[in-house]
């Protein structure tokens, strides 16, 4: 499972989404930017910034 917290990109935002894969999470994040933040154009650099902030929620802690 993948997760994106918009507060990592937009200070003060508490919106987040999860999905089975990165593409689904990016699609939902872009949809959120359009619907809730009024963005009409999502530039490729914004998509890259979203991707950089997606985390894997299935990751197990590394034992040392």
Notable characteristics:
three-stranded antiparallel β-sheet; alpha+beta; 3 strands; 64 residues; 39% helix; single chain
The secondary structure category is alpha+beta
Fraction of residues in H or I helices = 25-40%
Coarse morphology = elongated
Hey, roughly how much beta strand do the residues contain? 15-25%
Major sheet characteristics: 3 strands, antiparallel
Average pLDDT, all residues: 91
Oligomer: single chain
Instruction: Please list the strands of the largest sheet in the order they lie side by side.
Output: 2-1-3
Query: Unreliable stretches, pLDDT < 50, 5 or more residues?
Result: none
Query: How many beta-strand runs?
Result: 3
Distance between the ends? 24 Å
Given the structure, what is the number of helices? 2
Q: Using only CA atoms, what is the Rg?
A: 12 Å
Record the SSE blueprint.
Blueprint: E1 2-5, E2 16-19, H1 22-37, H2 44-52, E3 55-56
Antiparallel strand pairs: 1-2, 1-3
What does this 3D model show about the protein?
The chain has 64 residues and is an alpha+beta fold. 39% of the residues lie in helices and 16% in strands. The chain has helices spanning 22-37, 44-52; strands spanning 2-5, 16-19, 55-56. The longest helix has 16 residues, at 22-37. The chain is elongated, with a radius of gyration of 12 Å.
Summarize the structure.
This protein is α+β, with helices and mostly antiparallel strands and 64 residues long. The protein is 39% helix and 16% strand.
């Amino acid at each position: 499972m993948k997760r994106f917290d918009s507060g990592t990109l937009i200070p003060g935002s508490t919106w987040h989404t999860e999905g089975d894969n990165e593409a689904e999470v990016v699609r939902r994040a872009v949809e959120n930017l359009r619907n809730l933040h009024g963005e009409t154009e999502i530039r490729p650099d914004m998509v890259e910034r979203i991707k950089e902030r997606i985390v894997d929620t299935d990751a197990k802690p590394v034992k040392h």
